[in-house]
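Here's my example:
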Amino acid sequence: MVMTERPTALAIADEEVRRRTVQEQLGVPLERCRELLRAALGDESWRVRKEAVEVLVAARPGREEIDGLIELLRHEDNAGLRNATSELLVRLGKRAVPALLDHLQDHDQDLRKLVVDTLAAIGERSAVPALLITLADPDVNVAAAAAEALGAIGDRSAVPALVQALDRQQHDFFHFNALAALGRIAVPGPLPPVVARLARQDMLRLAAYECLGKIGADTAAADLLLEGLQSQLPSLRSVAIRSLATVLHNLEPLFRQSVIDHLRALFDQGLLEALTQAAVSGDAEVAEAVLALLEALADPRSLPLLLQVMVDERLASRAMDALQSIGTAAIAPSVARYALADETERAAICTLL
């Protein structure tokens, strides 16, 4: 790797004196204090590094200065220098973007990765076209960072390229980042075949299910998540439940009814037991998703679970909505449970009736 000359450390023993020395450079032309400030960015003291960042931000460096700062990211032996420089470039924001974009073709893959991470933190949409090209970077870490950056920026125009890159790239690490990026951008639509394929791979199933909860809007996505509901792994079931509740909400009425019918058929195959475990697992988000599914199902067989959940004040209102969706079919089994119920459940039954 070609290295630029490392800035010489400030030759002052006392940390506070070094910090004040840096502070005194505020307002001094950069050509007169450049080396001192660059040395301060790599200082062993975080207080000195922070002061250097503040002074350099206030100096509003031009393109040539910013190019020089980017070169400091090459110094692998000084994490403090690289971190402070990255923070500085992020603070410079839009001003630093053109110089960062020019370094996306650098020979050093580590520098390219740091540049992409910095662009992600800045979040400037003008970087999107260059990041789309970087999805094909020969180094998978850089390509995966580009996918993550596109997700952070959130530009919807990146979705087709991310889907194509998912199909083109063979590395699971890239797949994780690209699926997460698609989920962050969250453009609902037909299930891309590549996402369906990845959702059947054990290593990627969890990430794919998370993604489907953000982008799924058809029965193909729902069918995949229905498979997830029957998983033996609680973590997979929980994600499938959360995502399916969202997808079901987004479906057109006719397709929605088809999925509901499928869910009802699964009640006799252990689905109710799986939903019960998820509802009482302590995860409020998963419990909310269970209640959303049960409200859509409006199945009397869910009555015991819904009465059980009603004792939780956080979920009582949603549980009542689900109970009311069952309608008059809930009356007879509720009355039958009353004699054997404890005081809390009796109160819930009275409220329902």
In short: The CA atoms of residues 104 and 135 lie 11 Å apart. The mean pLDDT is 92. Residues 234-250 form the longest helix (17 residues). The two ends are 75 Å apart (CA to CA).
